[in-house]
Design a protein that fits this description.
5-stranded mixed sheet, alpha/beta, UDP-N-acetylmuramoyl-L-alanine:D-glutamate ligase, 305 residues, 9-stranded mixed sheet
Length: 305
């Protein structure tokens, strides 16, 4: 089924204990669509870049089956840029520089060819922009998944609360869930979020896995223990792309299938951290994905005598 992703396509400059990069392709929508491309072939993007964004990078997206008809290229303007430096524990980072550039006045345009989308992924960006995309669709998608972050919880809370009423699934990390609800218990936080609108809540816990909440049901997906984490940038977006990509492929939004989707999303995220930026998820094979998913299954499989 068709998937539409809204979010940022950007330049990142990264520094980790393993090295540093100058400008490389980044942005929430980049990671989401690349990850989802391994599952669904009807993979549509709405984003904006400046005319400094290389055609070769757009061709890279196209080569992965990402439809860029909804990618605006603003002449005379620059692409969104983010620079960050990770601490030695790789769990914390400092933002060195942010240049909003074209994102400052982004007005998302949904092409007519995208109007039949059944799955909508609202990648991390301002809640007002995310809401605009929903309003510009002729009909409501079968499933709307929202990703947000602490910045919007802090500075755009009224917009975010209005948006939450329109979505089916919220994806946040544990810190964001606590910030949004003022609850330390993630079980209580998920229950409170469900009163805000989304009936399914996914709380990411980084190297400690992810939790899925729906009604009175809870599922925990482990994270794969890795010998080294090279670059965590984009791992959460890659997770979201694998999750919604798998749902779009199977066209099944039951709780049991969402559990499987979380495993696939976790597998995709585990690849992302192995190289700088999106490099690793641009060059995967189906055999690698299947093998990695099997590793996740083995992590949680056990028998009772």
């Amino acid at each position: 089924m068709s998937l539409l992703t809204i979010g940022s396509v950007a330049f990142d400059a990264l520094e980790t204990p393993f090295g540093k990069t100058d400008k490389i392709i980044g942005g929430a929508a980049t990671y989401i669509t690349l990850s989802a491309s391994y599952f669904t072939k009807n993979n549509n993007l709405v984003a904006v870049v400046g005319d400094d964004f290389p055609e070769s990078m757009i061709r890279d997206l196209n080569s992965h089956g990402v439809n860029t008809d909804g990618l605006q290229v603003r002449v005379g303007e620059k692409t969104f840029f983010w620079s960050g430096k990770y601490h030695n524990d790789m769990n914390t980072r400092d933002t060195v520089e942010v240049q909003l550039n074209v994102m400052e006045n982004f007005d998302p345009v949904v092409p007519a060819s995208y109007q039949d989308c059944q799955y909508l992924m609202l990648g991390n960006t301002a809640p007002a922009i995310q809401k605009t995309v929903i309003e510009r669709l002729n009909s409501r998608p079968k499933l709307i998944v929202l990703d947000t972050m602490n910045l919007w919880i802090e500075i755009a809370n009224p917009d975010l609360m209005a948006l939450l009423k329109l979505v089916d699934v919220l994806v946040v990390n544990d810190e964001e869930a606590r910030q949004l609800t003022k609850e330390y218990s993630l079980v209580k936080a998920a229950a409170k979020i469900r009163t805000m609108g989304p009936q399914t809540v996914i709380i990411k816990k980084g190297e400690h896995g992810a939790l899925l909440f729906q009604e009175d049901r809870i599922f925990f997906a482990p994270a794969l223990p890795l010998e080294s984490v090279f670059d965590p940038t984009g791992a959460g977006d890659t997770f979201a792309g694998g999750f919604i990509g798998y749902l779009a492929k199977t066209d099944d939004i039951s709780f049991d299938n969402m559990k499987r989707a979380i495993i696939y999303g976790s597998a995709m995220a585990s690849f992302c951290v192995e190289k700088f930026g999106a490099e690793r998820i641009m060059n995967l094979t189906q055999d690698e994905i299947d093998e990695r998913v099997s590793e996740f299954v083995k992590l949680s499989a056990f028998g009772l005598n």
